[in-house]
Write a structure and sequence with these properties.
Blueprint: H1 2-25, H2 30-33, H3 37-50, H4 58-77, H5 82-105, H6 108-134, E1 154-157, E2 160-162, H7 170-190, H8 197-214, H9 217-236, H10 241-259, H11 262-281, H12 284-302, H13 319-326, H14 337-371, H15 378-392, H16 398-414
Antiparallel strand pairs: 1-2
Helix pairs in contact: 1-3, 3-5, 4-5, 4-14, 5-13, 5-16, 6-7, 6-8, 6-16, 7-8, 7-9, 7-10, 7-15, 7-16, 8-10, 8-11, 9-15, 11-12, 12-14, 14-15, 15-16
Length: 428
């Protein structure tokens, strides 16, 4: 069990620092490091099987069966490229089972320790993000994958680029701080004595500063969602109202303090400009929240594109698949996740995976909600981040996939609090 827990920690740390290795320290190994977490997850699954700890539930089996069927159809009637097919199937037969393995091996105290580590990491991460925000793309801190001197930043506003932090792409920054938010809220509500108040305050400042520095609307909305989940907890447990008010007042004071700093004022101006321009181009708030989310899901299932019955083949909708099949980075199928699934696997198998993702989200969500009755608030807060990633997160992108696996696994593991002994909480 200890070996498995250490392996999960290694997977988590590589998720955070894999991009740093690919950009700054081992740029010559940038390509193989893209999948550096895959052999670790596979090895841990093999060890778990040998020790009789392999997770078993209907959802996981259904994911694997659908993936195997699609894999053989990919080679028979799809694009036929073995390497692309293997890259595509690994998502469903390695990383999805590994998510359930995290949920089986970890306990709530392990999840809390991961949370503490995230708060510690958030402090230097915010310093790095600030340096990237104010540095030119030619600077070392903005160097791209493989040592690319053009930089790893992505278009933002007013001449500033969205910083990637330690990640290969800016998506990682958004996902990291989105996962930080539930833990920050948890520690404010619980007032965990094992965590220094100064660390909590510093991480909270980092979270607030990251909103404009990341120039990410997704992060802004995700923090709002987590805050709503926290508010719901207080409705269920009024005794936590004082803790929530104390936390919100602390956030307000930190925000006021940051707003008086010139570097933060500039970041706010850039963020607001990006927010307004993007909203205008996408039709306002309705376009952002409805068209991009519900519209994308509807179009994926009921779109009029001509897709073969069994799809174009696993892996074709990934960046790696595009490079191997077309020789360039492009969306060969769809930029949206549900569209990619149906495009790769066809309507029947693609819709099967979509339904399984919906079921997994509902089941984990219901168990997290039920945990509130036992004063277990951590899984509910983590679910505020895990939900959308489980439902519609872009699993074709390795960093997004990794955060989904970690967030989903930690949410399941957090269901096993101290009041539950010698039992295993499974999502069946």
């Amino acid at each position: 069990m200890l070996l498995l827990k250490r392996g999960i920690w290694l997977y988590f740390l590589l998720l955070i620092f894999e991009g740093a290795l690919r950009k700054w320290f081992l740029p010559a190994l940038a390509t193989p490091l893209l999948v550096v977490r895959d052999p670790i997850a596979l090895a841990l699954l093999a060890i778990a099987y040998h020790k009789g700890l392999f997770p078993r539930n209907g959802l996981m089996v259904a994911f694997i069966v659908a993936a195997l069927i699609s894999f053989f159809l990919t080679l028979l009637v799809g694009h036929g490229n073995l390497f692309v097919a293997v890259y595509g199937i690994r998502i469903l037969i390695i990383h999805v089972p590994f998510m359930f393995l995290i949920g089986k091996v970890f306990r709530q105290q392990d999840v809390v320790e991961i949370g503490k580590a995230i708060l510690w990491i958030a402090i230097p991460m915010t310093v790095l993000v600030a340096l990237q925000f104010y540095s030119p793309q030619s600077a070392w801190v903005n160097r791209g994958v493989g040592g690319d001197m053009e930089g790893a930043g992505f278009s933002g506003a007013l001449g500033y680029a969205r910083p990637p932090g330690t990640f290969s792409f800016t998506t990682g920054t958004t996902l990291f701080y989105s996962m930080l938010a539930p833990f920050v809220l948890y520690f404010w509500l619980q007032k965990n004595k094992a965590l220094s108040l100064w660390i909590l305050v510093a991480a909270s400042m980092g979270l607030l500063a990251a909103i404009p520095l990341s120039i990410s609307r997704g992060l802004f909305f995700q923090i709002g969602v987590s805050t709503l989940f926290a508010t719901f907890i207080v409705i269920k447990r009024p005794a936590l109202l004082k803790s929530l008010i104390a936390g919100l007042v602390s956030f307000a004071l930190l925000l006021v303090a940051l707003s008086n700093l010139p570097f933060f004022q500039t970041a706010i101006e850039v963020f607001m400009t990006r927010f307004e321009r993007a909203n205008e181009s996408e039709g306002g708030l309705e376009g952002v929240l409805i068209d991009r989310f519900l519209g994308g899901m509807y179009g994926a299932v009921f779109g009029d594109r001509e897709i073969p019955l069994w799809g174009f083949g696993l892996g074709m909708g990934t960046n790696v698949g595009a490079m191997l099949l077309a020789g360039r980075l492009t969306f060969l199928i769809s930029e949206g996740e549900w569209g990619r699934l149906i495009g790769e696997m066809g309507f029947l198998l693609g819709l099967t995976i979509i339904v399984l993702r919906i079921l997994a989200t509902i089941k984990i969500g219901l168990k997290s909600y039920q945990g509130l009755a036992n004063n277990n608030i951590l899984p509910w807060l983590l679910f505020s981040f895990a939900a959308l990633n489980l439902l519609q997160g872009q699993w074709a992108q390795p960093t997004s996939l990794g955060f989904t696996v970690v967030a989903g696994g930690l949410t399941i593991a957090a269901l096993k609090n101290k009041t539950i002994k010698h039992t295993t909480t499974n999502v069946r």
